[in-house]
Amino acid sequence: MNISKYILIIAIVLPIMLFACKKADNPAETIDKEEENKPDYSGLLFSDIYEVTVRNGGNSEKINVFVSKCPEYNLGFKNMIENDQYPLTIFSGRSINWCQLALSGTIDVEVKILNKSKVPSSNQIRILPSRHGVSATLSGENIKFTLNKPGQYSVEIGNDGYKNGLIIFADPPETDIPDISSGSYKVLKNAGKADVTSLNTSLNGIYFKSGVHDIGVFKVPAHIKNIYFEKGSWVYGSIIMDGCSGVKIFGRGILSSGKLNYRESHCIEAINQSNNITINGIVIADPKYFAVRLIGSNNNVSWTKVIGGWVYNCDGIAAYEGSFVTNCFIWANDDAIKVFRNNITWSDCVVWQLNNGGVIQMAWGGSNSENVKISRVDILRAEWNKPGFNRGIINCVGNRYKEPGKTGIQKDWLVEDIVTENPVPVVFNISPDEYSPNHIENLTLKNWNVTMVMGTVFKNTINGNDPNVFFDGFVFDNVIFNGQKLTSTNWLDITGTITTRLNEPFFK
To answer: Is 272 left (phi over 0), alpha (psi -120 to 50) or beta?
Structure first.
């Protein structure tokens, strides 16, 4: 081969090699396998108000911040009814922004305000609940704070920042991620309704991979006992257990009722002797009805977060006989904590109450509930703007539907360590409907620190509705109301409580 041919080959090959090397060295032109594997979140609503970054040592990660916006009232749209107009009118233009992260050890959190027109200009930053003692610093549009304990945290900016608020769900690390190599799970990626029907009876679990799924109203087959939401999964639909016991719904993903019609389905429901249901770790977003309704017995609900229910009938969590509910966050526009059966324990929950419903609802429909313990509930806000039969931090409605023959008794209740982070319109509304007798015996309120806006149309009430049987055994144990400890001589004056058929309470 002569020299001219060598020169020609070099002249052709060398630029090609140099170009290839240049492309390989250019990050913008390199195919990133990690990017390729990221789930497709198109169609989901992300916050344009907040950006959240988490730092742990030398590691830094931006967290997806989702947003739930108050819908516009449109009669008939998704089965909206006339009753939906009022809440959607008073909350018009508002949103709630939220994100979910894992917390192990200590992390630094930075919140960047992206849209100052949606957030008040204020140097007053609170990280609630206050019992965690988290303080924040503000520099320009950046809010910084440190978290060292799992929980649900509200970033409160000024007096009105809550109208486009930010909630951070800091979950403990997962300890029960399923092993899908066993073949007992059906692993689903971007699943539709057809993917969760006719499930092989050899399977006992469903595994939703990260990404968006749409399963509609899913009725769990009897052989399916585990439903896992992988971190990064967003599942549209609802989960119904009808005659199915021992089902576990868990993980760090999101179950959203955003595509369902109003009151079409409870987000998670267990009926007809569906007992021993476990719910752990997931977020329930944009409920169109109850978030969790477990009317069987011996259930366990933990680290479950409810966010974005805007209309009436968006109740929080109901878990019946022998159930435990702990470390949950409840955003509700109807009753948040529903306690209608015996031997129920609630603890370490955070509540944001909207315009309707009671924070702690003792009874509906003549229900009976004995041996109930509710501990450590932090109430971020209660946004009642007009009196009603079902308003109050603790509320008893009784036989509201006037069902013949239904009487109720609430006996041996302990409600302790209750905090209102912002003043509420009303605290006590224990006034069951007059239709049928409702008795309350041995109700202890212990270690309360609550604030109420006085001098409004709202009134505290404790009214027995049986002329023959007085409410009895009420105990106020270290109840601080508007900064003053209640005693037998001052409690009626301080609280303005209206009472009938109430035996004299005992004070500690």
So the answer is: left
Q: Which amino acid is at 321?
A: E
* Contact in structure between 345 and 365 (CB atoms under 8 Å): no
Residues 395, 490: Cα–Cα separation, whole Å: 22
What is the per-residue pLDDT across 167-224, written as a single tens digit (0 to 9) for each? 999 999 999 999 999 899 999 999 999 999 999 999 999 999 999 999 999 999 999 9
- Residue ranges of alpha helices (H) inside 103-165 are none
3-state secondary structure 58-90: CEEEEECCEEEECCCCCCCHHHCCHHHHHHHHH
Question: Would you call the peptide bond into 437 cis, given omega within 30 degrees of 0 as the criterion?
Answer: no
Helical (H) or strand (E) element with 18: helix 3-25
Q: Indicate the helix (H) or strand (E) that contains 377.
A: strand 369-382
Domains of the chain: 50-171 (2.60.350.10), 180-507 (2.160.20.10)
Buried/exposed 170-197: b ≥16 CB within 10 Å, e otherwise: bbeeeeeebeeeeeebbebeebeeebbe
Between vectors from CA 210 to CA 207 and to CA 213, what angle results, nearest 5°? 75
Decide: 328 and 305 in contact? Cβ < 8 Å. Answer: yes
Q: What is the pLDDT of residues 94-149, one digit of tens each?
A: 999 999 999 989 999 999 999 999 998 888 999 999 999 999 999 999 999 999 99
Report the length, in residues, of the chain.
Answer: 508
Alpha-carbon dihedral angle through residues 46, 49, 55, 58, given to the nearest 10 degrees? 90
| Nearest-angstrom CA–CA distance, 429 and 432 | 9
What 3-state DSSP class applies to 330? strand
